Every structure is written in structure tokens, then in C-alpha cells.
Amino acid sequence: xxxxxxxxxxxxxxxxxxxxxxAARLQSTGSVTVAELEREFGTxxxxxxxxxxxxxxxxxxxxxxxxxxxxxxxRNEDSFRSRLEQAAAAKERLGAAAAAHVADGEAVFVDSSTxxxxxxxxxxxxxxxxxxxxxxxxxxxxxxxxDAPNASLIGLSGSLRAATRSFVGPQTIDAIGRHFxxxxxxxxxxxxxxxxxxxxxxxxxxxxxxMVARARESxxxxxxxxxxxTGLNAITGVDAIGLVLVADAARKHITPLRRxxxxxxxxx
Length: 268
Fold this sequence. Notes:
The protein is α/β, with parallel strands linked by helices and 268 residues long. It has two domains: 3-75, Winged helix-like DNA-binding domain superfamily/Winged helix DNA-binding domain (Arc Repressor Mutant, subunit A); 80-266, 3-Layer(aba) Sandwich (Rossmann fold), CATH 3.40.50. The protein has helices at 3-11, 15-29, 34-41, 45-57, 72-75, 80-85, 88-99, 114-125, 137-145, 170-177, 202-214, 251-259, and strands at 31-33, 61-64, 67-70, 106-110, 130-134, 151-155, 159-161, 166-168, 181-186, 190-191, 196-199, 215-223, 233-237, 243-247, 264-266. It is globular, with a radius of gyration of 20 Å. Residues 1-9 have low confidence and may be disordered.
């Protein structure tokens, strides 16, 4: 393909398509420059900067002078399917423990974490009567495809984030704000030594913070690895959480939580 033909083709891309191609290049090469994007897509420098600004807002890039680099936390974020296989036994135990704290008839916010997915799977298996409010497509699929007549589903839609197969953004935050729930079941990227809950993506962090604010009680589900990891974006302090369910964590991580007055339940 001649360069002129290539530029003509890329000019036809809508902004969302162009940004996906830029994000893919960032994942592949680690960095891009505004000049490269001008040549590749036949756009102005202003448009290229606008694309990079939007990718940064989504947590998929970090702006630099003259371009951008891939956001390291995004680069390390695994797909939903691969995350399901990580610490799978701990997630199953955490999911079962969380389900025991959900009473019949309760409304439950569920985030896009695979640990919360495990909890919903257990709740459906035991036939709990509940309403699930979630931004997670896998959780929506799970509820829709399972023969669970006692479970109702409210989907919290918005902009699709492919990495986590979840909805995020202003529409999702608005949808959360129109509801209250008895419980929130969620997990996080990491817990810092000072008790800050963190997430890799800024938009996912916003969703989780909004759910915490609209739930009567929040149940945080974490395995030991969460105390060794830190996401780029703060969600809230652990003091805002009603109950922390922990699996396979060292005493040095659990003791500080209890000293802060946090209720911690160790899941064996």
C-alpha cells in the first residue's frame, strides 16, 4: 500500500477506532510520539495530543513531552480470563465466605473483579434471593445464563472497558448514583501499608468508590498478593469498609488492619 493510500484509509477512522490502534501500538512498543501519530494517521498535532489525553484519562497511557508511554499498571493488567485462574482456590473460598454475609432479599453491588464473580457464582448456586447490581459483563452473563429464579439483575452500563469486560465512565457513575444497595462485594488491585485501596485504572477506581458510597456495608475480598501490589489510582481508605475477608495473607498484613479497628475475617 502506498503511503498516500494508507493515510487516506486512516483518515476514515472514527476517533474511538484510532485510539484503539494507538493503544495497541503503546502496548506493543511501549511509547509513541505525536509526530509518529501525525504521520501514521494523517491527523494534526492537536488531534494526536487529544487522542493521547483521552487514553491517559482512561488509564491506558501516560503523557510525556512530545508523546506518551504505556501506563505500566495497564500493561501489567491481565485479561478477565487469565485473572480467573490466578489464586483460584483463594477466590473460591473468599467467594463462599462473602456469600455467607448476604441475606435473602438483599441488593448487592458487584464490581468487575474475578473474586466478586466467584462470590456471585456461589450465591446463585445456593439459590439466594437477591438483586445484583453490576458493571461487570461476566457477572451479567453469569446471572442471565444461570437458572436462578430468585436472582434479579440490574446492569450498570456506560463505556465498555475491554481489559476488564466492564462498563465505566460518567454514565456508569450516574447509574450507581440512582441506586442504593445493602452490600457491596468487591476486590482491588492492592492495599497500601497505610490502608489505601488502589486500582490500576482510574475509571475502575471511580466505579468502586461510587459503589462504596452507595452501599450500606462494603465487603472487601483480598488474598495475600493484594498487600504486595499497588495500583496507580486510589479508591478509598480501608476505614470506609465494613468487613475485610482475607485469604492466604501474612500476619504482618492482617495485624495493622485490626489495629485500625477494621473487622477482618480470615478465610481458611
